[in-house]
Amino acid sequence: MDLRSRRNRSTAMRSTIASRRERARLGPLRRAGIARGETGAAVSTGLDLSAPPAPRRERRRFLRGGGLAAAAGLLVAALVLVQLRTESIDLRYRLARALQSEQQLLEQQRRLIVELRQLRHPVRLAELGAELGLARAADIRELPAAGARP
Asked: How far separated are the first and last CA of the chain, in Å rounded?
């Protein structure tokens, strides 16, 4: 095989690949009869591609009215979500402070109960009584109940 036949073969391959690409790119237009500047009446969709495009004013009006209302609605919804999130975070902080306060109060209650038990302990009361000169009662008499007869 000589060099020229190789070149011809590679050139032919390149042109085949290029034509395949071109056909794939222009496939729908070629089938409709509109390719490389040709004008055709109607494409298979039923639209006349040679007609000027529809005016955009009507579309803009729709976007102004409906689009603006939709954007405003989305903005309001986003602001409501932000407000709810802020309130949720604030509530969590208040709950944390309340729990911390509860823990401090429970600790204070525990310390006060311990102190009360120490102050009411019988051994301590006996020592305090001895310091003040109080003696233990030797003669204990039981009195009858208020409604009972002797």
From this structure: 147
Instruction: Write out pLDDT tens, residues 106-117.
Output: 999 999 999 999
148 DSSP 8-state letter: -
If you write DSSP's letter for every residue of 32-68 in order, what string do you get?
Answer: HT--TT---S--TTS--TTSPPPPSHHHHHHIIIIIH
The predicted-structure confidence for 72-91, as pLDDT tens digits, reads as follows 899 999 999 999 999 999 99
Sign of the Cα pseudo-torsion (89, 92, 94, 100, in order) = negative
Cα dihedral 17, 20, 22, 25, rounded to 10, equals -130
Residue 115 forms part of a structural domain: yes
Is residue 34 included in any domain, yes or no? no
Range of the domain at 95: 3-29+60-132
The amino acid sitting at 27 is G
Alpha-carbon separation of residue 68 from 32, 61, 65, 75, 110 (angstroms): 39, 10, 5, 10, 63
